[in-house]
């Protein structure tokens, strides 16, 4: 009964929110048209989309209590250092590995056979932080896409379940890793639990990896296998240190998550760099488009959360599990809390001069982690429901007052058509869009390619929009 009331309440609230959103969108449309008129552009509208009821349902099911339970369980293994005990059922990375594998298998049981779980095991040779050859295991849960034209298209969401104390090669010390990175691991497990009962066009991989603290070893192995097998990974998210809403600087901010994205592609060739210097695009890599997508969808579907785009591959001079993906040409971003507390990262658990050091669960904010997981869920679902981003998008080369765009037609049966998005060259996000229907070329009349950045998005019949594709110059005739 109470559940029924709560549900009715939630529906009323979401309808009210949708109405407010719709009115806001209308208002934005008007102001955008005003701005467009000032710029002399014909009939432009903003990119603001409507909330998707399926995504709203999914986001609501993410439960902070499950996230807390997972984190406390992972901490209970004492250490999850990659070099720690592999065969002790109580302590060490082996215990964490087997517990996670069993949890993902439980989740898969509710997927109607669409989710499979595997241990991806390999022997890591000696390396800087690996004193002797060591077996590493990634836990990989794959939720198969249901649309034949899209099932090969894959999105990967990841966290690392290994941890460390002050020394990365100390396999004996306590390394609770409640934030780094039980928080990301718990978010990925909760995403898998909630998303397993939903159907998506494309495939989603929920992954928890080992060896991050030893030099991104687990994620590197997965990304390299993916490249060798020609896996079509359209986007990868790593969630690493998403546990706390309070920084070492004292700032309390439970409403913001940072999303780090690179501007210039890690795998850019010299020839591509020459083209980019000539036509621009430092701010339009596939990873930057992914960050924009997460901001647009995350803020729309998870009210109260702000996605803070950081124009960097990672924190200053630091790294994460998205890097091996970037180096192999996949779009990838990193989610991290707004301000970190270094007393609680990579520290032996101890008290010194009245200060508590160590990565302990008491410094986690489980409600905050749930909200970061909700932003992940919204963006992943939106990507996996939508068509693939348009391929081979080309911009006409000639001297012209107009901008000519063309691309390959998508093959999804539920494709409704395309929209052109654009923004001022100094704007951070797409500010305008125009619906153009089912076409594979379009000319923006009276708009010079010198003065705007353009992109193309595919849209399905339910209004799900793809990532934007940034055009490259068409070969000169
Ligand atoms: Zn980490």
Q: Uncertain segments of ≥5 residues (pLDDT<50)?
A: 1-45
Beta-sheet strand percentage? 15-25%
The averaged pLDDT comes out at: 91
Strand order of the largest sheet: 1-2-4-3-5-8-6-7
Bound molecules: zinc ion
Overall 3D shape: globular
Oligomer: single chain
Descriptive notes:
The chain is α/β, with parallel strands linked by helices. Helix content is 32%, strand content 21%. The protein has 10 helices and 17 strands. The strands form 4 sheets. Strands 1-2-4-3-5-8-6-7 form an 8-stranded mixed beta sheet, sandwiched between helices. A hairpin with a 7-residue loop joins strand 13 and strand 14 (432-437). Helix 2 (53-61) packs antiparallel against helix 10, helix 3 packs across helix 10 and helix 8 (286-301) crosses helix 10 (366-385). Residues 1-45 have low confidence and may be disordered. The structure holds zinc ion (ZN). The site of zinc ion has 6 residues, from loops.
Brief summary of the model shown:
Helices cover 32% and strands 21% of the residues. It is an alpha/beta fold and 477 residues long.
Keywords for this entry:
477 residues, 10 helices, alpha/beta, single chain, 4-stranded mixed beta sheet, binds zinc ion, 17 strands, 8-stranded mixed beta sheet
